[in-house]
Amino acid sequence: MLGLYISVFLGMLSETSMNITLPDLMNDFGISSGVAQWMVVGYMLAIGVVLPCVGFMLKWIKAKTLVLFALVCFLIGAVICTIAPNFPVLLAGRIMQGISTGIVLPTMYAAIMRVFPLHKIGAANGVAGLVIMFAPVIGPTIAGALIGALSWRAIFALFAIVAVVAIVCTALFFVTPIERTRPNVDVLSIIASAIGFGCLVAGVSLISDMGFSPMVIGLLVIGVLVLAFYAYRQLHITDPLLDLRALGIAAFRTPAIMISCSFSCTLAFMYLVPQELQRGMGLSSTVAGLLMLPGGVINALCTFAAGRMFDRYGAKKLVWAGSALTIIGGALFYSIGVSTPIILFLAAHIIVMIGIPFIQQSSQSAALKSLPGQMAADGSTIMNTMQQVCGAIATAVATCLLGLGQTNYAAVGGENPAQGFVNGSRYGYLFGLALVVVVFACSFLLKERKEEPKLVPVHVDIEKLAA
Hints:
- Helix content is about 80%, strand content about 0%.
- The protein is built from 17 helices and no strands.
- It has helices at about 1-15, 20-30, 35, 40-60, 65-85, 85-115, 120-150, 155-175, 185-210, 215-235, 250-280, 285-315, 315-335, 340-370, 375-410, 415-445, 460-465.
- Helix 7 packs across helix 14 and helix 11 (about 250-280) runs parallel beside helix 15 (about 375-410).
- The protein starts with a helix and ends with a helix.
- The relative contact order is 0.12.
- The model is unreliable at about 450-460 (pLDDT under 50).
């Protein structure tokens, strides 16, 4: 698993390191903030388009071959970005990196279900979660240091070096644990998947910059309609691109919804908190980044611990504990003001960073454990796709609520921009808290299974039916 773990770490590191580079890209290429944001949107768009196809690709292509292809794409993309003479070339390299991440992320979880026995699934997911959560901890710090010492191009050069390490580890150690069934290729489903998920992710990602403009509304409408057709087709063809029957299994569907809600809460909080520290409390970006480091480190450690605790205690108790902690931390975030002591922020951030892993890791392990082995790849793909789409929507909602809160503050005569930003942030924190309440409510529907479920074929007596 080493090659896959490094690959996913690389993808998450790339995803969380870009925000800090945007001002430098704007200066070097003479572009606006809206254009520069495509470094983030384009990456998410590539992931959203590729993710739904991975389960199908794993049924046709050896997992090892697919991972090596993805890593070579990432390496080429990183090299292109390092030497990019203009922004379009840079964006093309960035999209190649997104394609790679969209492949390796669900492949890692599908491989975990094949490599590890059921009683170690939680621990394996804990390691995977540690890898994923460690990237946001060090990503902004590394990116800031490289920009200060060299330039933004050094970040992509570092990505290229790590990609080479991942390629070597994958080539030497990774096995192909996923059987290939080689189903029929449904071209119409592939096209519908690319258009539907692409339009939906692009639409929700652009709301914060463009509002509900005709273009955004058009993308959202097309995305929803095409995805409805896509879902109908997957449930009515013999060889679906993505086996959506997994969502018909309550033991999988419930934790999948919980994962999406907790992930959305995390993105909403982490979108608001750094900005509030700077624009609401008047701190510098350097200080804001340092203040978020302790919570990030604790989050990574708790992610690892939560995976191991799942094997011992199951999902429900861990979700209850995680929900309670996240609600307490979210309430503390809500109470932050322009003159709040830093210690309150640290407490709020650390409490949330402890609570979220207990929700996400236990829910993810419960979801994957509920599926038959042959549906593991599809289940992993479904969960990761739901997280990307719901995360993009949550960020857009948090942005809109932030603006609404600022507008309401100004409407009643408020003139302090810092206090207006704090008021707007509180609207977003309430949204995050509402998502955690949904998680807590869903936890009562969790069904724990100790043995791997099996798909039981249904035998139909055709002669009796005809009679």
